[in-house]
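Quick bug: Class I SAM-dependent methyltransferase output formatted oddly.
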Amino acid sequence: MTLCPLCTHQANFFIQDKKRAYYLCPHCGLVFAAPNSHVLPNIERQRYARAQEISKQKSLSQFIFPLLEHIAQQQPNQTLSGLNFGRVLDSNSLEQITQAGHILNQYDPFFAANQEVLNQQYDFVCCYRVFEHFRSPQKEWRLLSQLVRPNGWLAISTPLLNNLQQFEKWHYKTNPTHVSFYQQLTFEYMATNASFTLLFASKDFILMQKTSGSDIKRNLI
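Here's what came back:
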């Protein structure tokens, strides 16, 4: 019996390709790779290192800056504290955020593993192309839920799985470090079970707020 690593319900065998078997949870909609196919930590670290390339850094900053700008519009004249979880933003971008009067801490399991930043709450937490790497998404989701303070925002970038029939040909699953794949149903489940309101979920952008009643625009990005 294979249990879903997010909701712990029994999952069903989904498909088998040349390298891995995948399972589908009928309860939360998560699709995940068989645990025995997970790559070794040193290989994952090497692939994570590629995310520090200039092109990837540009994508990360283009994700964070519009998010910070729109949240700041909701709380004008306030210093915002945020956490960039799972990636490391370049020093120049961090300096721009500081000059704008805000604070952004960073946590990366390989390159910025400062546990102290995980012991406080933030106005916003952002996760750029991180969720697909979660081997134990229940554990990670519980942590992220605790890091966002009431009325705070959680912004996630991960490609949504919109068509199960096309999963077998989906290029995104070919990366061996991508082990968890989410449908909109999955994020609806996660939001409901952690006192979040799911404000937006489309393509590769998901936005949640820790309480209901936010008036932030749905077309934020």
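Actually, after a second look the formatting is fine. The radius of gyration is 17 Å. Closing.
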